[in-house]
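Q: I have 388 residues here and want to know how they pack in 3D. Can you give me a structure?
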Amino acid sequence: MTKFMGYQRADGSIGIRNYVVIIPTVICANSVVEAIGREYHEVITIPHVYGCTFDPVSNLEIQNTFIGIGNNPNVAAILLVSLGCETVNLDRVYNGIKNTGKRVEKIVIQEVGGTIKAIEKSKEIIENFINYADSIKKVEASLGDLIFGTECGASDSYSGLSANPVVGYVSDKLVNLGSTVMLTELTECVGAEDILTEQCVNEKVANKLLDMIQETELNLARVSSSSLVDISPGNLVGGLTTIEEKSLGCIKKGGSTTIQEVLEHGQKPSKKGLVVMDAPGHDIESMVAMAAGGANLIYFTTGRGSPAGNPICPVIKISSNSDTFRRLNDNIDVDTGDVINGIRNISDVGEELFDYTLKVINGERTKSEQSACREFAIRRRGVDVCIL
């Protein structure tokens, strides 16, 4: 089955969820957003620690991420809550969303007269947004209309042998059905460059990918010579020994099809098929970047277990081994331990994951959705200097 009923947006994209979202443009506006969330439980609120920095590189990336989140096809409408003096340009974010035809409104706390008045003003907007979202009729769509993200976190030595290849099997299947699949985590591509560049559609794409990986290596070298920069203590306890070993397992999530495009951080794909995005190995930052790039759904493989989710994308959690699946059953949707135990092969478990994907696309809530796991973080590339 490749057809389903989804939510068509003004720009032609298709959503598998129909969220009303509230996001502050700066940490100083969190209290207003959180107050609305306590009253309207059906609304997705995204409090965070960003929005005010002298660093122009990070400031631009924060703005672009907010624009991408607002334009994600799983979002029906979005309210931006600003303090009024932050470095993030509210109008740029607002217009970047509005220009796609998405329903968007803005409130400036300093202009409306403070927190209480901003909350009351927000309620009027949110009630209108909820009514609007409820009025949207589903349309028939196909898997080729969707974008799928891939992520791995709390990996172990089994991840590259079971969970990641299973996701790779599904990635190949989705690409062959016309979908777009994102591979990210450039810190976890270091050491696997030769494989990935051979997979690229042409030399231009290969060179861009290689340049991004080399920049990632340079940035890591500037931070520290410690192995903890690119491989976590949990990875080491789980049996991984080097970043190369981790990378060779990580890239299997993308499958074996041709890499059609290399994207900037949070950029929306312009081509169908397998694409690579410049996003970090930090699980939450990477998933937020993919959501900003239009991902409808994210596959998250884990060896040691992780509850991490995303505010606007369903996250399917896949364990590399059955022990972790049993211990963290509240957090994990699919177990690939049968591959390790020699009971089933990758394609059999891959078909199970594909079938579950169809259920999620058609509305079944993942474990991360059921537990309201909505973590949010944005990569910071420049010098971290806050305005006081």
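Q: Anything worth noting?
A: Residues 384-388 have pLDDT under 50 and may be disordered. Residues 110 and 185 are 39 Å apart (CA to CA).
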